[in-house]
Amino acid sequence: MEIRVNPTRMELNRLRGRLQMAVRGHKLLKDKRDELMRQFLDLIKENKRLREELEGQLSRSFANFLLASAVMSRETLEEALMYPTADLTVEVETENIMSVRAPKITVVEKDVQETAPYGFATTSGELDSSIATLTKVMTKLIELAALEKKVHFLADEIDKTRRRVNALEHVMIPELEQTIRYIRMKLDESERSTLTRLMKIKEIVRA
Amino acid sequence: MSMYKVAVVGDKDSILGFKALGVTTYPVTGSEEAVDALQQIAKGKFAVVCITEAVAEQIQPQVEALQNKTLPAVVLIPNNKGTLGLGMAQIKRNAEKAIGADILFGKEGS
User: Fold this and answer.
1) What is the ipTM of this complex?
2) Model-level pTM?
3) What is the dotted CATH code of the domain comprising A9-201?
4) Which chain B residues are Cβ-neighbours of A159 within 8 angstroms?
5) What value does the mean pLDDT take over residues A124-128?
């Protein structure tokens, strides 16, 4: 398909400029896609590994917790956890990967003494250990959250970039090239017709 | 630099333990409660939201809406009955979207 234009020299120049721009944009976007892809591959492998590790750890700590709740009555358990002393806060920075903005989340270290928020008289030892493991899991969980977000955004961006590259490569650039060809043919044709007309006129004048 | 909090949404038995860590917990039983909880989270200053897969499955549109925002970061966790494989499915979906083919899980699949 070619674009409908007036076959003039001015239009030809304009289209040539557009073609040049399209080719340059295409090259840049292709480079961007390749680099995004390279980063994405590392991240997604890391993401998969971390999630596998974490799912195992979480189910183990859930099992621990189940054990803890089995030895204690439900009321005492809820009472023990009702008023936590710890307060988990995180800091968020934005990270820029190839102009994809992703959050970078870090846990704020606080000098809270690692004491459980409950008295030891009524609670079981299992509860202590299950909460200790859960604390370790939580840090990783936050890491995983940030990583998954990053992967999600990168996937979006790669998809978008790939569409653009394809649109330029398969639609925009061929269209422009064809139109340029069409205009050049038209111009050549009209040049030839002027030439023959001139020759014809010259003949008539001379005779 | 500002401080954000962490939230956990899920059924009561699964998330009770998180409470001791200083995480805000939202125990939910049905999908309506879960939607309410997510709305509250979206308004508050939360950077990380952990949702159990069982709950996330019921309210998928809302979870996806959160995932497309910069914050909070949503992470799906298994509940105390084990994993449903939703979190893994999501990694797979992302890989397929970006690469066009599944490269991570292909070996077991076919």
Assistant:
1) 0.81
2) 0.80
3) 1.10.287.3240
4) 97-98
5) 72
